[in-house]
């Protein structure tokens, strides 16, 4: 199987669509992530943007807030994804989730993924909330 040519017109169109979506929701963290991959895995950086945001995130069935809740739950459940979770906590705030909603997603995940993973997620959120002066979080 031949890998797709990430420089083809079709792939570049997917990448541009993904970049537009990413720029609308990310708040500026993604370029650093993509740049960190440029000298070792440029195709991975391309696919994250083209597939993750150009194909998946741009689907109309879910609103950005809903997508972020799903993403937070999955990253919490996987564990070991704290750097990616940090990016997505920021993105969640950027698309309008409140700190209380984010915390509630992690509390809910504890029942399915376990307390250690939920605590790790809460620790990541606390760091982001502190940076944005959003502590303490009011429970709902």
From TrEMBL:
GO terms for molecular function: peroxiredoxin activity. It comes from the Bacteria. Residues 42-126 form the Carboxymuconolactone decarboxylase-like domain. InterPro entries: 4CMD/NDH-1_regulator (IPR052512), AhpD-like (IPR029032), CMD-like (IPR003779). This is 4-carboxymuconolactone decarboxylase. It comes from Kribbella kalugense.
């Amino acid at each position: 199987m031949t890998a797709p040519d990430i420089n083809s017109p079709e792939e570049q169109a997917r990448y541009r669509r993904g970049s537009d979506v990413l720029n609308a929701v990310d708040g500026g963290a993604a370029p650093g992530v993509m740049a960190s991959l440029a000298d070792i895995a440029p195709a991975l950086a391309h696919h994250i943007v083209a597939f993750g945001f150009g194909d998946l995130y741009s689907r109309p069935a879910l609103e950005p807030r809903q997508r972020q809740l799903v993403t937070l739950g999955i990253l919490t459940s996987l564990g070991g994804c704290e750097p990616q979770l940090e990016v997505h906590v920021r993105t969640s705030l950027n698309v309008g989730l409140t700190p209380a909603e984010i915390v509630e997603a992690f509390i809910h995940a504890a029942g399915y993924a376990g307390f250690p993973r939920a605590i790790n997620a809460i620790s990541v959120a606390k760091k982001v909330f502190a940076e944005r002066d959003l502590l303490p979080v009011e429970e709902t």
